[in-house]
UniProtKB/TrEMBL annotation, chains A, B:
Catalysed reactions, semicolon-separated: 1D-myo-inositol 1,4,5-trisphosphate + 2 ATP = 1D-myo-inositol 1,3,4,5,6-pentakisphosphate + 2 ADP + 2 H(+); 1D-myo-inositol 1,3,4,6-tetrakisphosphate + ATP = 1D-myo-inositol 1,3,4,5,6-pentakisphosphate + ADP + H(+)
Keywords: ATP-binding, Kinase, Nucleotide-binding, Transferase
Residue spans crossing the bilayer: none
UniProt protein name: Inositol polyphosphate multikinase
Gene Ontology cellular component annotations, sorted alphabetically: cytoplasm; nucleus
InterPro entries: IPK, IPK_sf
Functional summary from the UniProt entry: Inositol phosphate kinase with a broad substrate specificity.
Length: 286, 286
């Protein structure tokens, strides 16, 4: 039985008769190929990436597994539609908290058609992309007692200060509170050898070297599970994944300086929170 | 006696009755304060940078020393004009080779006025800035026998392939030749503990951390001296310096991801040349 994924925080959703991704509940995520060139581009990326021998195994694990395509009944009732078959990144998680961060100070690529370029540029300047090198595209924070999930309109209006506060709120035990976030889970989620920061630094090292792909408009999905085990709530399985590859270009021997710059900016925000979870001087500077 | 500097490769030049910088021949460089806000901004930057205690000493050495301002007879004959007093970066060099690299995939800053934004954006897209994260603003290569110095118009038309080739030609013993550059001085200039790459990596480490300044439209000036000593030509004193601070903004707690991204891209180009001076596959990919 295919159904809309519970923990999707950005992008088109398969609800109310619209076209969107589906999950099978046992580990697979079906993403409908987007119209115009985007669907074909994303399929081309997954195909090329899967068979690219120069991708280190550790780096490959940051990407959803790809299992080909399949014609499926589309969620909007329009009949059969080709879907990418990908790993469901949230399979098996009970209470996942998720944030989707679109990386890069610009989402347009040098050869972009003029109307697409204008649209991206306007969004990059209006959102925090130009200023911070990334923007939040969506999030949910699952607490034992409540779920905080800002609306699409709220997310679109986030300014630099909001982004800084939300990265703290994302690892707080009172996410829905309007008080200063307590960052109770900062070290468990962001810190440690397996934490978010360590994973981002691994990605960074790869982006300093790799000249295979340029990831325009792609996102880093950060998640962890608020597992409610017997000895109390304990956030675990902090994960960093890359998603959304409709605008990946051939790197042509040049590093992806746009993605790398934004990634380094995000790393600095996360490091600041880890260094001193109570220090909000960085937030006040914005 | 003040006179126009011999080794200036980019920017307004004090020749033919125009306003431009002057040198005193004994170590000082006088840069006329630019009109509109740019002069005031550059002076403000130098003043703030000089007294900023959080700048590590090693990093400070990448910037020209600042010695206040002075009213001097302008080179365009317009009478007294305020000049910044800076270190002459080429004092004492006999045959300096110099390249001016404007860093960042965008030269406009988020709060830029609309007309300035449009002008910068057009140049960033037309030049290699958007694609490579930096562009060449000017260069001269001094050989024992000849000097190669492309015109302003030639420099403006450099594409990605040209930039890649010029970074090789810059360290070749036959810079004016149309043949494939021989990279004879690559390891002497770009390599080693005191070489260009090592200096760029030091800068990079600082840019990953520093949130004090955002350097829009600033340049990295790479130079070395083709000293003609008794035991033959031996390039020495490879130097990396930052210049042009008319558009430096307060970092407000965010790293300069735009400069950092471009710097990492430049580092990758230089590393490739060092790894294999004969390998031009990178060049062919462009």
């Amino acid at each position: 039985m295919l159904k809309p994924p519970e923990h999707q925080v950005a992008g088109h959703q398969a609800r109310d008769g619209r076209l969107g991704p589906l999950v099978d509940g046992s580990g697979l995520f079906y993403k409908p190929l987007q119209s115009d060139d985007r669907g074909a581009n994303e399929l081309a990326f997954y195909t090329s990436f899967s068979s690219e021998p120069r991708i280190p195994t550790r780096i490959r694990s940051f990407f959803p597994g790809f299992h080909g395509t399949q014609l499926l009944r589309a969620s909007d009732g329009s009949g059969l539609h080709p879907h990418l078959i990908l790993d469901d990144l949230f399979a098996g998680l009970r209470l996942p908290s998720v944030i989707d961060l679109k990386i890069g100070s610009r989402t347009w690529f040098p050869s972009a058609p003029e109307d697409y370029f204008r649209k991206c540029l306007a969004k990059d300047r209006k959102s925090t992309s130009a200023l911070l090198g990334f923007r939040i595209s969506g999030l949910q924070v699952n607490d034992e007692d409540c779920k905080w999930r800002p609306s699409h309109d709220e997310v679109r209006r986030f300014n630099a200060k909001d982004v800084c506060r939300i990265l703290r709120r994302f690892v707080s035990s009172d996410p829905a509170s309007e008080c200063e976030p307590n960052c109770a889970f900062a070290s468990a989620v962001y810190g440690g050898a397996e934490g978010v920061l360590a994973q981002l630094l691994e990605l960074k090292a790869w982006f300093e070297e790799q000249t295979l792909f340029h990831f325009y408009s792609a996102s880093i999905l950060v998640s962890y599970d608020n597992d409610d085990s017997e000895d109390g709530r304990r956030p675990n399985r902090a994960r960093v994944r890359l998603v959304d590859f409709a605008h990946v270009l051939d790197g042509n021997g040049v590093i992806d300086h746009n993605f790398l710059g934004g990634l380094c900016s995000l790393i600095k925000f996360i490091s600041n929170i880890l260094k001193d979870p109570d220090d909000i001087s960085n937030l006040n500077a914005l």
